[in-house]
Hints:
Largest sheet: none
Number of strands: 0
Amino acid sequence: MAVREIVAGMPWWVKWIAVPVIAIVVFGGLIASVLSFVISLLFKVLVFVVLVGGLIFVVRKFTSSSSSSSSRGDW
């Protein structure tokens, strides 16, 4: 007997309410840990991008100001 035949004989509330609730109860810890890992990874990527962007901004600011002041000193 195929799974589709078994599920086809069930009422709608079993398919759309009971089965997802049982899946969440059984796999809830796994789902929560995967979501936590993904959110943590995205946060770390965001922090990395902000820090690298800030570093590039600071380096460009100091190199442009030091090169412009040295060119003014040449005059």
